[in-house]
Amino acid sequence: MKLQARVAVHIPGAARLDNGVVGLPSAMGAFVRGLADAVEDLDLVAYDPPKNGAENRDRPDYQFDAPASLRLISLGPKGSMRDLPQRRRRVARIVGNVSHEWDVTIYRLLNRRAGLVARANRCPRTVGYIGGWTRHVLAQIDLPMWRKLVSQPALYVIDRETLAIAKQAGLFLANGEDLIDHFGTLGVPTQLLRTSSTFDADFFQVADRFTNDEICLVVAGRITAPKGVFDAFNAFMLLRDRLDRPVRLVFIGDGDATAQLQAQADSAGVRDAVEFRGWQPAGPKVLQQLRQADALLHLSKAESMPRMVWEAMSQSVPVIATPAGSLPRAFQDGRELVFVPVEDPGGAADAVVRLASDGALRRNMIAAGAEAVKEVSVEAITADLVGRIVRCWPELRVV
After folding, report:
1. How many structural domains are present in the chain?
2. DSSP class of residue 398?
3. CA distances from 209 to 310, 356, 362 (A)
4. d(C-alpha 86, C-alpha 88), whole Å
5. What tens digit of pLDDT does each residue of 23-61 get?
6. 65, 37 in Cβ contact below 8 A?
7. pTM beyond 0.85
8. Which end of the chain is more exposed for a tag (fewer CB within 10 A), N or C?
9. In which domain, by residue range, is 171 found?
10. What is the dihedral of CA 176, 181, 183, 185, to 10 degrees?
């Protein structure tokens, strides 16, 4: 069954369509792929990938075969502030010429360029769907003042554009309770809709972990200090003398803390037990690596609702996490995961020892996590989204 409508989805980042294959950033890939299967016609509205390399959010590294019903609406190059007037005119022309065909427009947020599309959009039904950091999340992180000041102008623009879209949207969704609270204080009615990159066919079930001769701990996502990566490394160092088996620490992702972590591993003489696998596109490649882990360490200092926690649970991997963002409102300590205090490597090490020694606890956590994650597969989320669209605009129908 599909929504009988032409839906446009505007994503942050870039996209391309070559020889029937869609390429777009991994953070958006599964969502767009799921949406393409759930609607009659889908217009993917995005900028072109940069020709001279790209940051993670612009790498078109999530690829899938495009159905005939998917059409790419290219907005041209992103450009910079210098060519903003030219880009504004170009986007207004492109969107103005095609948006009268759209039955629904979905804005994936955060997206500081979404305002250009919104101001030219002639479609009367709009959905905002936010799943990223806002200034209220950044304020929770103990960063140097200069870094916070440098980031403020861009975050101000993002907040302004996001709030404008939220206030005119017929349906506004967020993937975390903390975001719902935040936008509620701004007078925007907001509904909860989780974010996932895992399809039903990608789920992997095993009954237990910590059963091999070596314990493998994984840190996945942005390798930056606010993500608690140094706490994970320090926990790993503490564990080397506390467990009866060797321990391996694997970092999946990239970020500005990578070089310092590598230097610390070299200095401590543990480089052979610490792996840095670099940036990996979301999807099967990351999931395959998660399956090799005994636990995910997610020790972030501030979050909304991290997608990686769901992905680990979908692969039967126990999670040790800080109670950041919406995590305490989505999960119960000792049931789906184990919570440890922020900036407490010793607490994280204690949690690993606890899991390694308590088979009943970790098996129950694996089972509870697998049950919880069924509700946030890509198919489940997409069906939920389509259902909400139809309830908001009853003139649309699913056949």
Report:
1. 2
2. B
3. 17, 8, 7
4. 5
5. 998 889 999 999 999 999 999 999 998 876 555 567 788
6. no
7. yes
8. C
9. 3-196+377-392
10. -170
